[in-house]
Design goal:
By secondary structure, the protein is α+β, with helices and mostly antiparallel strands. Helix content is about 20%, strand content about 35%.
Length: about 100
């Protein structure tokens, strides 16, 4: 099964279904289907179902997700550079959209 790492601060939002997408750069292609989101510390795994993956420049990702007010270019770039220091607004990223996890 395909997997992606996730930081601990995002686990609750994925688990409760309020976070339904992730933006990734240079981590290998994700495809629709089951996806394990893995947090190393504290250890947890959440399985979601990816329904769409879209490749677009980072500068278009906020608008694509309807979050341009929350994520103007400077905010988006600063947030992404926490994980990907070399990323620019012109880099092509994957917007991975998924359904909320099923109740256990």
């Amino acid at each position: 099964m395909q997997t992606l790492d996730i930081v601990a601060r995002l686990v609750p939002a994925v688990a409760n279904g309020s976070k339904r997408s992730t933006i990734r750069w240079g981590e290998g292609a994700i495809r629709p289907g089951p996806l394990r989101l893995v947090c190393a510390d504290p250890p947890s795994v959440i399985t979601v179902e990816v329904w769409r993956v879209t490749w677009i420049p980072l500068r278009e990702a906020a608008a694509f997700l309807g979050r341009e007010v929350d994520w103007p270019d400077a905010v988006m770039l600063a947030g992404m550079r926490e994980h990907y220091p070399a990323i620019t607004l012109d880099c092509d990223v994957q917007v991975v959209e998924f359904h909320p996890p099923s109740p256990a």
